[in-house]
Amino acid sequence: MSTLQFHSQPQSRFESDIRFASSTSCSFRPRRNFTLPRRFRPRPLSLHSHSSTSLRPLPRAFSNDPAVTEKPSICTADELHYVPLPNSDWRLALWRYHPPPQAPPRNHPLLLLSGLGTNAIGYDLSPESSFARYMSGQGFDTWILEFRGAGLSVQASNLKELKQSADAVSEQIEAIAKSVANEVSPQKQPTDVSGYLSDSEFYFLREDSIGIGTAWDEAKLVAELTEIFMRLSERLSGFLSESQSRLISTKLLDQISKLLEDSQLSERFEEVRIKLANVLEKQQNSVIASQIRDLSQRLVNIIEGGQRSVSPQFIDIQERLSSTIEDFQKQLDLIVKYDWDFDHYLEEDVPAAMEYIRAQTKPKDGKLLAIGHSMGGILLYAMLSRCGREPRLKAVVTMASALDYRCSKPLKVLLPLADPAQALNVPAVPFGTLLAAAYPLASQPPYVLGWLNDLISAEDMMHPELLEKLVLNNFCTIPTKLIMQLTSAFGDKGLCDRSGKLSYRDHLNKSNVPVLAIAGDQDLICPPEAVEETAKLFPENLVTYKLFGEPHGPHYAHYDLVGGRLAMEQVYPCIVQFLSQYD
């Protein structure tokens, strides 16, 4: 591997005479064109109609153009585009930053990929520190992808619904920040931190409990129980495996069993429970559906019989059953709503965005430059591993990314979520909500959770206002299925695909794409040694490893590489130098 040398003094944002001081060099041989599968060729989605004689409509959902509707207030890009995800109602948000007229001309667009559970804001915290603005100022047509479930990416079936959903997300993000910013006492918890989960969804992050529900409605309960068991019999239309379906149905029946403390009712319930379990094992058909409804009716009748008992333990039992069923239904909905993993990003989100950007910018060789921070860099590594010598990428920069995280102590708290049963109990982790709730305790005396700041930024490396914006606005909800796959990075094989058979480390030695791997000296989440070990997997003449930070300071933690006070002077010029050589 080679190392980079760069100027320590600030460079002009529009400096065109950029010198690359590394000995790294690479020659590319012409290769045949690579075409993505048809399912990865999205058509542009536009929120607005434009009267034009052009054969091609303006391919953007929002724009600063005064003739069209304003972007959501949270979006600070020049334009906001939406890319339809094939075979899905997801619309992926792409923030676009145009180069100014005085910037040096470039041959390739630049794609930025964010980290786990983050949106585009981390790349554009403020005009003074914005990584996206800096890169566009250096001439790169810069695009930030927000993965499904992050930022302004929304599920919508039409243009009106898309705009409403995007505006709602924008208002929600701003409301969270405003709520925490108004906190005065460090002991006082935020009063309205809803994150990306509703109150009913957040229920499943608490210990299981049975509350008091609505009035007893036998017909409604029979219908709801029937629907739940029918969905489990269908295995939630493919969302659950057979073993997962068995686990979650057992959980519901266990909760109902707790309500029936009378021995006589318990015996009657066990009889129905056994029959239900047998029915759920069978493939669904009209006969099975009828059996499920009959058993649901019998179950409700048992509960109703207990209600007529004068025994005190049966007071409100029907209402409690209603509440149990309602909460369980919400959990099933959450499992369906947050049903994606790392490979979904790799196989669907990133290819759809790349194809869209190519269609808009038309680079002559059909290639893009790409930069990924944290999980964004991991995705780029996985692409290079899977696509071999034809990933349609001209050059790649990764920041704080690795494929083996065994040396990362903070991330090991995620390991309990690798249990498939936990993915059913907690289908999604409202990471943004939890960070926002913890922020007052991390940023104000007596700094009970002050250690959280060290995971994000090294001491004195990020302005307090920018750190607050990052914590309160940049993070979102993470599906447990995504976390489960990422925990494979703690195993001997490193990060693997969802089947566990393919290690993304295996084929990096065959890549022909130049890579700059950047690490921060005080990054506790992705330690420098993890970054360097992954870099060593590439051909030596194509990879450059750069460590930022000095023994006596300044130091770089996980997010200082993209938003720290010295990043614009030290990190950003280094990246421009590298990309310029291959652009």
From TrEMBL:
Keyword Ion transport among UniProt keywords: no
Keywords annotated in UniProt: Lipid degradation, Lipid metabolism
InterPro entries: AB_hydrolase_1, AB_hydrolase_fold, UCP031088_abhydr
Any one Gene Ontology BP term: lipid catabolic process
Statement: the UniProt record of this protein carries the keyword Chaperone: no
Pfam families: Abhydrolase_1
Domain AB hydrolase-1 stretches: 344-560
Name listed for the protein in its UniProt record: AB hydrolase-1 domain-containing protein
Organism field: Gossypium darwinii (Darwin's cotton)
